[in-house]
Design goal:
four-stranded antiparallel sheet, globular, six-stranded mixed sheet, about 25% strand, alpha/beta, 10 helices, about 250 residues
Amino acid sequence: MIRVEALSKSFDQKMVLSDIQVTFETGKVNLIIGKSGSGKTVLLKSLIGLNPIEEGHIYYGDRDLTIMDASQMKCLRQEIGVVFQGGALFDSQTVLENVMFPLNLFTELSEREKRERAVFCLHRVDLHDAENLFPSEISGGMKKRVAIARAIVMNPKFLFCDEPNSGLDPLTSIVIDNLIYEITHEYGMTTVVNTHDMNSVFEIGEKIVFIHEGRKEWEGNKEMIAHTENKYLNDFIFSSKLFKKIKEEL
């Protein structure tokens, strides 16, 4: 579980996040949604320690991220897996080397043990016989699966995904959504996903946090979201004809 208390963040004296209070639940896919510029990416980066916190607290269980020293932060990062928006794979390394990277950085496993663990994770995301390929030789969907394999190779307690469906076609997006959902429940992780994808919201949104102009405007789940009376959320979710039709049918 991750608990955020009274979190505020500003850049150049402009408030980007204001008094965010939310709990991200263990064993569930927690989604952060909102318009571009709403502050959701800043919130995600704050959660993983990439943004210094000015006000408030972020608790991983009973550990306060905001007061950790370098040693404590290093320990925490070994419990965190991150899937970046573009995949952030190393172009000069093979698929296998990319997945092994956290093991090389944080463990003293033998080369054989690291290889076996990386291959296991690649197979878990349904990538077979791709170990020796380079990122330039695989599709966008395969790159995202490699990024997920790398994110889970350390057996993390916490998984963060920044726009995991960005740039993918609808069918591949569904595959990625299902994979994130499956591994969240399989490993009992606290998963936090930053997304614009409304299909993700209605398919895997077990907990949804809507950020509007730097504030938490609404929270609930995919069953509740179709019946919300929150104007800002309605404007965001049902702005297209497709989702207006979905809401009418619900």
